[in-house]
Write a structure and sequence with these properties.
Four copies of one chain form a homotetramer.
Chain A lengths: L14 E3 L2 E3 L5 E5 L6 H13 L4 E3 L20 H11 L3 E4 L3 H6 L6 E4 L7 H7 L6 E4 L6 H12 L6 E5 L15 H10 L4 E3 L1 H5 L5 H11 L3 E5 L17 H17 L13
Parallel strand pairs in A: 3-4, 3-10, 4-5, 5-6, 6-7, 7-8, 8-9, 9-10
Antiparallel strand pairs in A: 1-2
Helix pairs in contact in A: 1-2, 4-5, 8-9
Protein name (chains A, B, C, D): 3-deoxy-7-phosphoheptulonate synthase
GO molecular function (chains A, B, C, D): 3-deoxy-7-phosphoheptulonate synthase activity
Keywords (chains A, B, C, D): Transferase
Chain lengths: 277, 277, 277, 277
């Protein structure tokens, strides 16, 4: 075991997505469904999370699924209505690419490319994202050392794209009562040892709806720069990960509690009116 | 993987240690050195943490050490001065027993017996503690499923002693940058699935002094009932675990931040004047 | 990660149990039920495993169980008939102690004390076993580093009892398809870095009857000094761990395959006639 | 924990690489350097391993490295001399592709595409390999459940390419004394639950040269269909993974011991003269 003492933190560089600074004095909330399933589902979710104060939209167009038989996302069938939802709600989208060819396909649709945990060491994908001009949200691999996660980010930044946001989303451990194990040690550690913004995905990290808000609050208190969270109007009908999706009402209640904690530690939520799309 | 949704939490039963209710509306802070090393070191630490608002003292009389060559604690040589420090500071002590024979030896010295993570499945020890009238703080084993931890508590409660407090102190995972991995999922889960108070030991959970306060804040935000934290007047001179001990000044700063967060979520720190030894 | 290259192995010291040298030129097989359940069950198992070439008996008198409601072993009610079975079959017993007080209780019954994985860091128990004159079989803790396992053995040897046998029994990992993960890396590593005999418990390591013989063969091939394996005449009726118990017929078939592999690598099974009780 | 009992194994389908059947009555050895570094290094290694009985060559043209600053493989600069070495030695090559674009580039160079552990869930790559007519060696992800590994194989077979070989190469666990933890439980389990051939990479699984042969022998005894092992004429000069590379002399000694074990269990090594390139 290698243990280090750290006394000072580097200053965090700021990454701007759709008008919101991530890594600055305000806390950012990215919310939306796991999968984008239909125009109605996506519009309802977007309007709902915006009304409760979310800053950016999330939503999967292509889904990586353990089984090839599970729902793999709508793909290009979603492009038109996704663009429309973003325009109507005046929100920017963060969405995952799982292959180099997808970068170009959704370039105009998203303001931030997400790299999922299964792809954290898809170095060819990272190199290609290093050549782009839009930010990249890099999820930690399921069993990646913090150090491997930081080094994976360098595959992007070495290519010239400095706009990388680290995202802790739970690691795989022996525990089975929860989907993964949220590693807030890693958030505190990465904040002290890199200058990249660090956000948390409490939804994948615990996998149990009722516990997501508590862990979002913990993420805020530990010093994360934001969260990315799954919300679905009717989780029981979700085509993927319904167990961990908040309802719109859960989300609204969570935002109120987050607001209290963040205000207390002088790290307030962005005001939605700051938005300059 | 077994995933459960939980909508309601059981009401937490209250365990009183030295006049402080654990599991009720207030948050409890237990602080002190890893090992009790000398009368001067223990008195200085006790006075220091009390001045910053700690409610209860911690301190090891016997230490479990991986190597038989490492410092094993002062043992009975500490009894007299420990009693004196508790009396002078009007604070109660939480201390570890590693063997059945130690229960009687320190019965009059402590107000709560601690069971360390290596002993979580020392069922003979748990059974014996189930016959005592003083509370037991049960640390989670290094690689114990949440369910095993809860079932270990039943070895105590089945014996008639209901005064058990669960303590999450980090689990062993693949990550090596931090000493252990703090599992706040487990805290949120245990709060929803048991009626026992749950506290967090951020010191062992991360093992790096600079990160301990951030994780203590996360523990407060996630809904823990308290923390137990290591403090040493001069960590560089500590005979055990100096890397993770807060200085008295670190501790004081942490208490101020904790106070802000806990006030914001209506879970204030106990007032020290509540103390009724 | 700390990686070491090792070129030479220390010579293994020999530990004798009931006339069989463990750690010498021959391979040792310890077999029997998880729990000793009745005179008939234990006698039938003992006769059966002996007929197929087992050298020593295993069998739990006290069982450590995660749940306090599960079968905890017969305890002292088994003493008389256990002694009788050992005498009738002319076999020596390896059995677990979970508490210091049990050492004296079964001193005359066993030729080797077993320390279970939950007790690997019960240092008071190890210290007490260090004062005894009978060998100790020390199972690796569920999540013990190889180095912690070796250092735990020193708690015994430092007390004067050099007769320690290390036993790898599977570690806890993320994998859930098998009960634990058999770590044969650790066996190869320990053989090169200590002079203690090292044996393998394939039953707990995999937890699935059909796979136990394959893993026993792997243990023989990797260089272990023996195995300890669970056998039950009617596994479906076992009071503990029936899923992983071999039938007498499975055991017999496994012994034949082991014999072939061990003969090929010049590490033959002890002949049963070597036995000098 | 989900535990299953299995009594029968499916018959293993046979995958032919360069004239050698994998999954049939004979055991296959794939050997060569981690990285192909130069014509001389690759030729010397190929000749050396062939002389000791290796059946197929391994060697990395593109290397996935945690740090973007480490040696990334020769890439296209190696194509000509690699073809020449294969021709001169009359051996077929197994080599890794890390990106869809590489499949076409090395299609004529290799007889089997390797998918590394970091790419096990690069589903786009797997889908593309499912359209090819050459076999795929699919390494298990660092922290993939056995079930995820099997499901990843279906991304290939669903595309029409049934020629998939599973390769266990060590999983990431808490243990740090060895590079990874070889999971032979998984080999035994996969042999019983799929009809795909299963081989073992002991080099990455343990990461320590001196222990590789012992673990190769364990793989043979547990029932694997072959091994893939790293060999370097001068490991100290290797550009990647030198700590785990066998010398040619180590390899030769290992083959002799493997031969004994495999003969004993009626699973002999392929004769090299069987080769029909």
């Amino acid at each position: 075991m290698e243990i280090q003492t750290m006394q000072t933190s580097p200053s965090t560089q700021i990454v701007n997505i759709g008008g919101f600074d991530i890594g600055g004095p305000n806390f950012t909330v990215i919310a939306g469904p796991c999968s984008i399933e239909s125009p109605a589902q996506f519009m309802e979710t977007a309007n709902g999370v915006k009304a409760s104060g979310a800053h950016l939209l999330r939503g999967g167009i292509w889904k990586m699924r353990t089984s090839s038989k599970d729902f793999q996302g709508l793909g290009s069938a979603a492009f038109d209505f996704v663009k429309n939802v973003c325009k109507e709600t005046n929100m920017s989208l963060v969405s995952e690419v799982t292959d180099i060819r997808q970068i170009e396909e959704i370039y105009d649709l998203v303001e931030c490319f997400q790299v999922g945990s299964r792809s954290m060491q898809n170095y060819e994908l990272l190199r290609e994202l290093g050549k782009q001009r839009k930010p990249v949200l890099l999820k930690r691999g399921l069993s990646a050392y913090i150090n491997e996660w930081i080094k994976a980010a360098e595959y992007i930044t070495n290519g010239g794209n400095q706009n990388v946001i680290l995202c802790e989303r739970g690691i795989r451990t022996f525990e089975t009562a929860t989907r993964n194990t949220l590693d807030l040690n890693a958030v505190a550690y990465a904040k002290r040892n890199t200058n990249l913004p660090v956000i948390v995905d409490p939804s994948h990290a615990v996998g149990i709806r009722a516990l997501v808000p508590d862990l979002a609050c913990a993420a805020a208190a530990v010093g994360a720069d934001g969260i990315i969270v799954e919300v679905h109007p009717r989780p029981a009908e979700a085509l993927s990960d319904g167990m961990q999706a908040l309802t719109l009402s859960d989300f609204s209640a969570m935002m109120k509690k987050l607001d209290k904690i963040l205000t207390a530690i002088d790290r307030p939520l962005h005001k939605v009116t700051e938005h300059a799309h």
